[in-house]
Amino acid sequence: MSKKKHDPPEGYEWLSAEENVAWAVLGILGLVAWAVLFGKACMG
User: Where do transmembrane segments lie in this chain (predicted)?
Assistant: First the structure.
């Protein structure tokens, strides 16, 4: 059991590249959904 397996790779803090991409996509989808709901509320 080596400790290096649990250390984050160089250049990353606590998220991997895949997790960063996933969170970015979720954030964008959330913003789009919010904009659509807000737009519908404004339009009545």
Answer: 20-39
- Spatial distance between the Cα atoms of 26 and 18, rounded to a whole number of angstroms: 12
H runs (alpha helix) in 1-44: 17-43
- What is the pTM assigned to this prediction? 0.52
Could you say which residues of the chain have pLDDT below 50? 1
Query: Containing H/E element for 9?
Result: none
